[in-house]
Amino acid sequence: MTEQNEIEKKWPGRVHLLHNNEIWLSEQASKGLMLKRFDDSFAYFEESAGENIHFRMMVLNEKNAEKQIKVILSQGFSLVESYKKYYIFRIDGKYSHITPSLNEETIGFTRKWFNRLILGRFFVTIVFFAAVFIQLFLHRGKLIQGIVEVPIIGWILVFLLLAYGILNCIIEYRLLIREKRYYLKQEAFSPVRSSKRSRAMKIFFIAICVFAVALLIKGVYFDKEQQFSIHEVQEVMPIIALQDIDEAADAEINEAALNEADEDHHAEIKHSLLAPRQYRAWQHSSGNVMHIFYYEVAFEPLADRLARELPIYDFMEIKQDDLEKVDVAGLDAVYLWHRNDFSSLSARKGKRVMHVFLVGDIPVEDVLNKIAEIM
Predict the structure, then answer these.
(1) 268, 279 in Cβ contact below 8 A?
(2) 253 CB burial (10 A radius; 0-12, 13-18, 19+)
(3) Residue 98: which of 59, 135, 71 has the closest Cα?
(4) Which of 44, 277, 301, 374 could covalently link to 238 via disulfide, CB atoms 3.0 to 4.6 Å apart?
(5) Residue 2: which residues within 8 A CB-CB, separation 6 or more?
(6) CA angle (52, 56, 59) in 5-degree steps
(7) H helices then E strands: how many in the chain?
(8) CB-based burial, 209-245: b 16+ in 10 Å, e otherwise
(9) Which residues, other chains included, contact 318 with Cβ-Cβ below 8 Å and sequence gap of 6+?
């Protein structure tokens, strides 16, 4: 909590970026803001005349702190404040060349402290990527389908998030390693450049968040899925009309139902980076149901994996091992599952994949022959 007449400012980076904070505190002192106290997130200042003050921020072992502080004070430094393991000292700017003498116990403790920080960041990175891979593994049954259905703008967002995560990790590791070398080996580096990179990364992250929110708003309020008639789809991509393979449906479904999209007969055309041409179609008659998923993928290796995935349905308890591979003339591969009046199949020809889910007494052979004819 801010006390009266105190000015609260957030650390420019993280509290453990010691050298970066030292430079920042010296800048504040030159502007007339003198450090009074601090915590993990904020530094609290009181107004004073601008001074040329050099600060040193250190981590000290509690058992060795008193002995080490006496040594540092004897060099002309004065202790400003401490918080947990963090200690901040000050000295007149004209003596900024003086480096606090560290005893062996302090050097050993500081080395272990930095190592723990670096390992901690590495562990967080591993946990993040492990969580991603676990999710991919758990959804491996429909992984390729999910990937090929991601729109181009979605891939851009994924790439930006991945780039941010990797760059942020690299910057964090480099900063910690440089801080460690600075305190243990007195290897100088420019924290100002590091601070600029950190600010650039924050701006980058904010831009990603704005982009994601814009995508969400666009998806909720502007991207209304347009429904097309079966005949409209037939003009641009191969599709099976239910009445072509079902005589009863042929008598029931009139031409208007095929030319106009309604609840029982319609399709949704989609586009994505890995499947530029795709659609989903629903057709119902009194006795039969036929759902069709169609994809033209960008790379042929994706097509076979996609064809293997599409017939799998958790709610029908259809698993990969339940699929039967069937040879059909004119098609590169066919994967089929059939039980009672339910059938789930997919067919591949080159980069084209068609999946059909059937409910009713429609002969599967007729469906496969029709797919071979139109693909």
Answers:
(1) yes
(2) buried
(3) 71
(4) 374
(5) 8, 44
(6) 160
(7) 12, 13
(8) eeeeeebeeeeeeeeeeebbbbbbbbeebbbbbbbeb
(9) 311, 312, 337, 344
* pLDDT digit string, tens, across residues 232-285: 998 999 999 887 776 655 545 555 556 677 777 889 998 888 999 999 999 988
* DSSP notation for 219-266: IIII-PPPPB-HHHHHTTS----HHHH-HHHHHHS-HHHHHS--SSEE
Q: Which residues of 141-152 are buried (b: 16+ CB within 10 A; e: fewer)?
A: bebbbebbbeee
Close Cβ partners of 63 (under 8 Å, ≥ 6 residues apart): 105
Give 323-359 pLDDT, tens digit per residue.
999 999 999 999 999 998 899 999 999 999 999 999 9
- By the 8 A CB rule, do 71 and 98 touch? no
| Cβ contact 40:80 at 8 Å | no
List CB contacts of 370: < 8 A, sequence separation 6 or more: 240, 244, 245
Q: Where are the beta strands (DSSP E) in 27-167?
A: 33-38, 42-47, 53-59, 78-83, 86-92
Q: Which helix (H) or strand (E) holds 9?
A: strand 7-10
| AA identity, residue 148 | V
The Cα–Cα gap between 95 and 134 comes to 55
Lowest model confidence (mean pLDDT) among 33-37, 181-185, 328-332, 340-344: 181-185
> How far is it, in rounded angstroms, from Cα 187 to Cα 193?
16
State the maximum Cα–Cα separation within the chain, in Å, rounded to a whole number: 102
State pTM to two decimals.
Answer: 0.63
